[in-house]
Amino acid sequence: MAEVTMEDVTKIYPGGIKAVDRVSLEIFDREFIVLVGPSGCGKSTTLRMVAGLEEITDGAIRIGDRVVNDVPPKDRDIAMVFQNYALYPHMTVYKNMAFGLKLRRVPKREIDRKVRDAARMLGIEDLLDRKPKALSGGQRQRVAVGRAIVRTPEAFLFDEPLSNLDAKLRVEMRAELKELHRRLATTTIYVTHDQEEAMTLGDRVVVMRDGVIHQCAAPLEVYERPVNRFVAGFVGTPSMNFFEGKVLSENGDLFFDEGSSKLKLPRRLHDVLAGRVGRQMVLGIRPSGLACKPEGKLAGSGNVMRVTISVVETLGDKMDLHVQTTAHDRIVCRVELDRALKDGIELLVYVNMDQVHVFEPGDEGVNVSLKGTGDQVSAA
User: Fold this and answer.
1) In which region does residue 123 sit, left (phi positive, over 0), alpha (psi from -120 to 50) or beta (all else)?
2) Residue 230 and residue 243: Cα distance in Å, rounded?
3) How far is CA 13 from CA 21, 47, 53, 57, 78, in A?
4) Are 58 and 228 in contact (CB under 8 A)?
5) 71 Rama sector, left if φ>0, alpha if ψ -120 to 50, beta otherwise
6) What are 156's strand-pairing partners?
7) In whole angstroms, what is the distance from residue 6 CA to residue 350 CA?
8) Distance in angstroms (rounded) separating the CA atoms of residues 103 and 117
9) Per residue in 121-169, pLDDT tens?
């Protein structure tokens, strides 16, 4: 087990295509860290550079105390689990799991012990004599993980290992991988495009876009204090609602005019927004911060919007209401189940102003409201 460190790591493909742009990241010993972001953000390329499957253009990668820029993959003491599992179809499960150890000339008795221990840990002892074509997707995934476990490497690398599984099995395997990491305590780097997967698995989450790290923090930190509009919109299901509008000042109070209503901004934001009065800004609020009933903190004034329901999505005891104002076409509210709520109904929506964020304009506008809480706005 070891730390993995990247210092200004860059990958430029022929034609000047920059896939990864000066990524610096320290992954601690025994940490489970998740790289997440939209397709093409550079997360898999970053993982493949750590594995040695892609050459780096610039920068340095360390595994433990070794710089491994020029070290072949087989000598980096890492184990990688791929999206398609990469099992040998002509070999049994036992031989698939034992193959890497045989190449390293590990004694047969030790190979047998390691394979059977890993199979027992993963619950695939009765599958050792089968070939991959006789396995389900979940079973193949366990075999691929088992093949990595037997190596006892310094670090595990996972490249979207659950993407080929159905929704129910993905949830089950997430829990199994989390428990496995707890038992093995091996440094783990995990790549996914699924932000829910990232939030449930990672000790820290690294959010990437266009080859750049936008934020690296604990999952709840990323969710509750996103550093910019991109992170705020990417992390969370449904995604955060954004309202473009202006900051106004009236009688010592600050308001956000979203075009159809004026929302009274909390005192914590007065200092940071005082110099932005009259300017275009973006207000963000998560669907769970909107309600149909003025209860508790929602009972105050200056936090109400009149909306029309366009779509109702029923989710068991919850509902996602897709609503619109005269100024904004798509707002999502996550509320308690209410069978009286139907498409086309007009109603009042109450905004929990304690949960709002204010961003500078643009797709990656900085979350200025973090400064109103004493937090530093930074990517990592």
Assistant:
1) left
2) 14
3) 12, 16, 14, 9, 24
4) no
5) beta
6) 79, 188
7) 45
8) 19
9) 998 999 999 999 999 988 998 999 999 999 889 999 999 988 888 888 8
Would you state the structure tokens that stand for residue 113, as one six-digit string?
Answer: 């012990």
Tokens of 374: 């004493």
Encoded amino acid at 211, one letter? G
Token pair for 286: 């998560």
| Cα distance between residue 247 and residue 283, in whole Å | 10
What is the rounded average pLDDT of the residues 222-242? 96
Q: Which pTM value belongs to this model?
A: 0.90
Please report the pLDDT score of residue 296 as a whole number: 57
Of 306, 307, 301, 247, the C-alpha closest to 274 is 247
Query: Three-class SS string for the chain?
Result: CCCEEEEEEEEEECCCEEEEEEEEEEECCCCEEEEECCCCCCHHHHHHHHHCCCCCCEEEEEECCEECCCCCHHHCCEEEECCCCCCCCCCCHHHHHHHHHHHCCCCHHHHHHHHHHHHHHHCCHHHCCCCHHHCCHHHHHHHHHHHHHCCCCCEEEEECCCCCCCHHHHHHHHHHHHHHHHHHCCEEEEEECCHHHHHHHCCEEEEEECCEEEEEECHHHHHHCCCEHHHHHHCCCCCCEEEEEEEEEECCEEEEECCCCEEECCHHHHHHHHHHCCCEEEEEECHHHEECCCCHHHHCCCCEEEEEEEEEEEECCEEEEEEECCCCCCEEEEEECCCCCCCCCEEEEEECHHHCEEECCCCCCEEHHHHHHCCCCCCC
Return mean pLDDT, the chain.
Answer: 91
Measured CA to CA, the distance from residue 322 to residue 295 in angstroms comes to: 21
| Contact between residue 7 and residue 60 where contact means Cβ atoms under 8 Å apart | yes
Instruction: Write the pLDDT tens digit of every residue in 306-343.
Output: 999 999 999 999 999 999 999 998 999 999 998 889 99
